[in-house]
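Hi everyone, sorry if this is the wrong subforum. Our group has a chain we'd like a structural model of before ordering constructs, and none of us has done structure prediction before. Sequence below.
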Amino acid sequence: MHADIVFTNGEVLTVDQNETIAEAVAVKDHIIVAVGKNDEIECYIGEETRVIDLEGKSLLPGFIDPHLHLTIYGTNLLGISCASPDIHSLEDLFAEIKKRATSTPKGEWIRVTSFNESAVKEERFPTIQELDAISTEHPIVIIRVCNHTSIANSKAMELAGITRETVNPAGGEIERDSSGDLTGKMIENAHMQLFSVADYSEEEIAQGLKLASQVFVESGITSLHDAGSYGWGPDILQLIKKAIDSGDVKNRVYTLIGSLTDSESFVRHMIDEGAVTGDGDEWLKIGPAKLFTDGSSTGPTLATREPYDSDPTDTGILYYEQDRMNEILGEAHRKGYQITAHAQGDRAIEMLLNCIENALNENPRSDHRHRIEHAGIASPDLQDRMKELGVVIIPNPAFIYANGDSYIKNFGDRVNVMYPANDYLEKGIPFAFASDTPVVDHNPLLGIHAAVNRKSISGQDVGVSQRVSVQDAIKAYTYMGAYASFDEKIKGSIEVGKLADLVILDESILSLDTERIKDVSVVMTIIDGVVEYEKPLSYVK
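Answer:
Right subforum, don't worry. Here is the predicted structure as tokens:
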């Protein structure tokens, strides 16, 4: 049998149970058919076989990101992004919004994404008055980088039906000034509800899905777990399926059943329809039922057991009471769902663990792989319960790089148990690294870099006791992502019989200084045995 593609002379990190480093791999159709030394793979080379000499570069299993927001990332590419190198101040941002207003029909939304008040010269949010000065005929919304807070102008508030008399929603705040007037700032569930009005059209979502998929493919992400969008509920599944069927989305997708605006209704609909975790195929599969428990780590609005170091009066925001969470996710568990929730602070993590324990006590199930999304502040007592209950943790190491300075300020010594990968390894708690993009950069190599070095973007050490090895970090971005979706038998490692989802880096990741991992790039991405991305040779090292 001759292969379609053979890779030779490489540093092949198989991520198998023995952490084998091979030299060569053969692929036939969409399956890995051989892994070994160069001379063992030569027999698979025929006249029509494409032979790729890796020249010592790393060949890895395709990256699996088990928590990112596919639709949100894609639609963000359609708006104004504060991540642009041209935006350094509110003045710069206002100029961009004014420019967009001149080309946007009156009444249509102007959306700004990735805003971070600490990254602009003024170090503050815009005001509703400043946005109204730009336009009162266009609804304008500026979304903070965490996707948990926004600032809107009066037109946007009007369309959302929000006045100074509007009551704060559970788990959210419509901010008012000392006179009781709206400031335009919407926090947590108030922001989520605002965006149910400010959401994108079906055509915009389709466009965004295509754009996002291409970016992720070029970064070596062959599979992803979509953690939800602002709205659309079950309809988003049909839009993603349509995009996969058309070839616009090339990544394999595991869908978390939840949304930022109304997870409860989405979960209820799917249960009523009889759908359950695991339904689907290797391209699109139903994942866990998901709720939101608390806020963001950088707001900060996550729910903690002790007050923030930066504010002794603040312990964050909870979305649900314990009994209500138990009821919703408990029913999903009974119906066969994997269950999970966004839980950042230790108070929220404890709440979710209580929910999982209650569900398992009432309806025991082995190998449930219930998850915790993020698990930001995971103290030792919570880790012990994670181990006991058999949950899978989805931490975000790139948060340490991007947000480490603010974590030190807001949480003090608690940074030593934030996204504690080394503790998880030592205690045998399964975990899979994720980006949570667009909250931070989607690049898996940045996440690996952060997990290995545990330094902030400014160079500060952030809980260095939680550093892990390069190979452990790669496993958490490949095999463990497959494990988190019950797919470890078909992908996540380079082994005979598994799907040919592969990534080539531009150098040997095991040979370089760990401080340079974030600078490594992907030069080829193979999905299902097909080369979906190949960097022009002139750019290959």
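For your construct planning: The radius of gyration is 23 Å. The chain has 17 helices and 23 strands.
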